[in-house]
Amino acid sequence: MTVPFLSIEGVSKVYSTRQGEIFAVDDVSLDLPEHGFISILGPSGCGKSTLLLMSAGLVSRTAGAITISDTVVDRPYTDLGIVFQDSNLLDWRRVIDNLLIQAEIRGLERDTIRERGMELLDMVGLEGYEHRYPHELSGGMRQRVSICRALVHDPPLLLMDEPFGALDALTRDQLNLDLQDIWLDSRKTILFVTHSITEAVFLSDTVIVMTPQPGRVGQVFEIDLPRPREFAIRETPEFGSYTKRIRGLFEQWGVLRNRAGAANRVSNDEVN
After folding, report:
1. Average model confidence (pLDDT) for the chain?
2. Last residue of a domain, one of 122, 154, 186
C-alpha cells in the first residue's frame, strides 16, 4: 500500500463569533500522492485557503490531523514553499536578493541558492531581470519571482493560494504554462487553490471540488489527460467533459445560476 505524502484526516476548522460557531472546513479527509499536482476548487468561503494554510501549519485545526511525509503538522511546517495571490516581494531588495532571503532565514549556502535562483529565473523567462527592483516589474513578473523564491531552496512541497487570481487572462495563461513546465521539470508535490474550473483541469492530476460553506469534499476528479498540455487541449471533448461535470456540481449546489434560476455559464469559468 502506497503511503500518502500529504494526509488530511477528519480535519475541521470552527470560528467562534457573536452570532455563533462558523464551520469554515468540516470533516475533510484526503490522501494526496507524492509528486502529484492537486487543485482545490470551490466557491468563495468554502474553506479552500483555510485548508491550505492548515496544511502548512499556519492556521490551527479545531479537529483532525494532518501529516506530511509522516511528520505531524502541529506547528508551522518549514520544508515547503508557499505562494499567495500577492507576490509579497520586498520592494527595497532586487529580484535576486528576494530569492536569497531563503538562504538567510534557513542558513543555506548563498552561492548554491544564487545558482539555483538564476536557473529558476531563466526557466520562467526572467533571465537578465535579477538586478531589477519589484516596482520595475509587471504583476506577472513579480508573481514569477514569488514562485522562484518559493522553490529556490528545493522543497518537496509547494502550496499555492490563488496565485494567478489577480492577473489578466493572457498573463494568467502564460503562468499556467510556466508552472506546468516547472512541475514537469521538478515533480514537486503541488497543492493549488483556485476559483477557475478551466485552470484546475488544465494544470492538475487531481481536482478536489469543495462544497459551499461549510466546506466539505464534494467530489474528487482524476484528470486523465496527456502531458505536457497545450491550450488546444481545452477545446477537446475530453477536456470539456471534465469541466462540464464540475460545473454541473456547482449548478446542483446553486453556486452557478441566473435570475431565472437556470445555470449561469460564466464566461471566465470561475466560481465565486
Report:
1. 92
2. 154
Same domain membership, residue 191 and residue 270: yes
Helix (H) or strand (E) holding 239: helix 237-252
Q: Is the dihedral of CA 254, 200, 74, 6 positive or negative?
A: positive
Instruction: Give the pLDDT confidence of 187-204 residue by residue, as tens digits.
Output: 999 999 999 999 999 999
Tell me if 87 sits within 8 A of 76, measured CB to CB. no
Nearest residue to 194 via CA among 243, 141, 144, 131: 243
- Whether 141 and 183 share a structural domain: no
Print the domain residue range for 271.
1-74+157-165+178-272
One-letter amino acid of 130: E
Residue 33 grid cell: 500522492
What does the DSSP 8-state code read for residue 152?
Answer: T
Instruction: Indicate the pLDDT class of residue 257, thresholds 50, 70 and 90.
Output: confident
Instruction: Tell me the residue length of the chain.
Output: 272
Q: Is 165 helix (H, G, I), strand (E, B) or coil?
A: coil
Q: Which residue has cell 483556485?
A: 194
184: domain CATH number is: 3.40.50.300
Hey, CA dihedral for 230, 236, 240, 241, is it positive or negative? negative
Q: Which of 248, 217, 240 is nearest to 32 (CA)?
A: 217
Nearest to 86 by CA among 147, 131, 39: 147
Type of residue numbered 115:
E
pLDDT at residue number 17: 87
Do 61 and 110 fall into the same domain? no
User: What's the pTM?
Assistant: 0.92
Could you give the residue ranges of the DSSP H alpha helices within 72-228? 95-106, 110-123, 139-151, 169-186, 197-203
Domain assignment present for 207: yes
